[in-house]
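note to self: dont lose this again. the chain is below, predicted strucutre after it. 116 aa total, dont forget to put it in the shared folder this time
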Amino acid sequence: MPRFLAVYTMKPEDLARFRAMPEAEQKAADMNGLKQWANWEKANAASFPDTGGMVGKTKRVTKGGVSDAQNAICGYIVVQAENIDAAARLFEGHPHFTIFPGDGVDIMPIMTGSQD
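---
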C-alpha cells in the first residue's frame, strides 16, 4: 500500500498567540487536544506504520556550512492509504488545527522504498 509523509505545520506567530493565552486556558486546550489526538491515532492506528512525533529547532546544512534555520514544520507521521486523497481525509478536523494553533498538515507521497 502506498505510503505518505504527513507534516504538521505551525506558524510561529500562531504558537506565540497560543502561549500568550492565560495558563489555565493553555492547560485546558492541551489536555483536551492531547486526548483527542490520542483517540484519533488509536482509531486510525492501522494507517500509521510510523507514528512519527513532534520536532524541535532546525539546523540547515548547505555547501556553506551549518546554520540555524526556521520553518513551519513541527511534527510528522507516516501514513499508509489507498491514495493521497484517502491519506488527506484522515486529517480532516484534526486537533492539530482545531484545538492547537497548528496551521495545517501537508501530505506527500514517499517515492522511495517499498510501495506494496
